[in-house]
């Protein structure tokens, strides 16, 4: 018998209510059994509480019923995949999905199920379950004269998009920096550099990875001022602001790198035409970026 997919608000509300009830039931009992007398005892009790609560939840039939219900709903969303091939583990849980097409529009529409956060599609998306999306194909601009640069681009969550990434970078990102041939740090030329990208630059300097760093500044066409007469003036203005954010030690270590590894682009949200004067400079900068990557491998 076919099942329909539950509406997310209904399922989540029902699940949260049940989990709160389970937590209150087990939590109340444990607090009574592990009662702390003073602050020293409280630290020990906190550790015991977490371990014992985990054990009791594994033995709780209601908790397993909720878990099974959620897994059933997840499975139904995988059942919506009519294209491609789903690879599963020995327990039948989906591990990966593979699909190939030459239809660009169909590709984008299908892959958004794994990457989109579009509200009208809530309840049918697999986005929260996806650790990464690998895409291979002849992705190259017409201006490249049919030559395809051999690049593998790794794009993760933007720096500063979450509170944890504001003042420090994660261990997983540090590992990516070590494994990659080059790191392209993209920032807005109009605004001062925020804490997260500054932290990333400092990390690369202290770890000895500064030679991998390539800086790209977007919205360069919007950098304006009465004291900025030409593109060179605007570039110096942007670079000077970086030094202020990094501090003297990091700035000195990065100074030589800034001369050869900075690129300034504008209007890259639209198709670029190298025959247009307003686009020509950005096209040239993107080409230099690709060349700079090859030089520093």
Write the layout of secondary structure elements.
Elements lengths: L7 H26 L5 H20 L2 H19 L5 E4 L5 E5 L5 H12 L55 H9 L3 E6 L6 H12 L6 E6 L12 H16 L1 H13 L1 E3 L12 H19 L2
Parallel strand pairs: 3-4, 4-5
Antiparallel strand pairs: 1-2
Report on this structure.
This protein has helices at residues 8-33, 39-58, 61-79, 104-115, 171-179, 195-206, 231-246, 248-260, 277-295; strands at 85-88, 94-98, 183-188, 213-218, 262-264. With 297 residues, it is mainly alpha-helical. It folds into three domains: 8-72, no CATH class; 94-136, no CATH class; 142-295, Rossmann fold, CATH 3.40.50. Strands 3-4-5 form a three-stranded parallel beta sheet, sandwiched between helices. Strands 1-2 form a two-stranded antiparallel sheet. Strand 3 (183-188), helix 6 and strand 4 (213-218) form a beta-alpha-beta unit. Helix 1 (8-33) crosses helix 2, helix 1 (8-33) runs antiparallel to helix 3 and helix 7 packs antiparallel against helix 8 (248-260). The protein is extended, with a radius of gyration of 26 Å.
Shape: extended
Here the CATH topology of the largest domain equals Rossmann fold
User: What is the rounded distance between the termini?
Assistant: 57 Å
CATH class of the largest domain: Alpha Beta
Order of helices and strands: HHHEEHHEHEHHEH
CATH architect. name of the largest domain: 3-Layer(aba) Sandwich
DSSP summary, beta strand count: 5
Instruction: Determine Rg (CA atoms, Å).
Output: 26 Å
User: SS-based structural class?
Assistant: mainly alpha
- Give the rounded overall mean pLDDT: 79
Summarize the amount of helix as a percent range.
Answer: 40-55%
As for the number of domains, it is 3
Can you list the strand order of the major beta sheet?
3-4-5
């Amino acid at each position: 018998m076919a099942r329909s997919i539950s509406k997310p608000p209904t399922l989540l509300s029902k699940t949260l209510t049940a989990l709160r009830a389970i937590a209150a039931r087990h939590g109340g009992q444990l607090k009574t059994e592990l009662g702390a007398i003073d602050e020293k005892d409280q630290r020990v009790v906190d550790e015991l509480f977490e371990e014992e609560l985990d054990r009791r939840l594994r033995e709780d039939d209601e908790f397993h019923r909720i878990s099974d219900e959620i897994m059933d709903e997840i499975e139904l969303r995988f059942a919506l995949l009519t294209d491609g091939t789903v690879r599963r583990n020995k327990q039948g849980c989906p591990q990966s999905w593979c699909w190939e097409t030459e239809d660009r529009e169909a590709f984008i529409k299908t892959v958004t199920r794994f990457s989109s956060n579009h509200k009208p599609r809530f309840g049918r998306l697999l986005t929260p379950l996806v650790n990464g999306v690998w895409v291979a194909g002849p992705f190259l601009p017409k201006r490249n004269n049919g030559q395809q640069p051999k690049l593998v681009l790794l794009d993760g969550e933007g720096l500063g998009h979450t509170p944890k990434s504001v003042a420090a970078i994660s261990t997983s990102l540090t590992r990516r920096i070590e494994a990659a041939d080059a790191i392209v740090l993209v920032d807005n030329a109009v605004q001062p550099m925020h804490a997260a990208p500054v932290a990333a630059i400092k990390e690369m300097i202290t770890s000895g990875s500064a030679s991998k760093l390539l800086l790209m500044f977007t919205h360069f066409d919007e950098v304006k001022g009465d004291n900025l007469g030409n593109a060179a003036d605007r570039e110096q203005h942007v670079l000077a602001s970086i030094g202020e954010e990094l501090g003297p030690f990091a700035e000195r270590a990065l100074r030589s790198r800034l001369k050869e590894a900075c690129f300034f682009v504008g209007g890259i949200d639209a198709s670029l035409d190298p025959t247009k004067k307003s686009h020509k400079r950005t096209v040239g900068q993107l080409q230099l970026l690709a060349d700079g990557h090859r030089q520093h491998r």
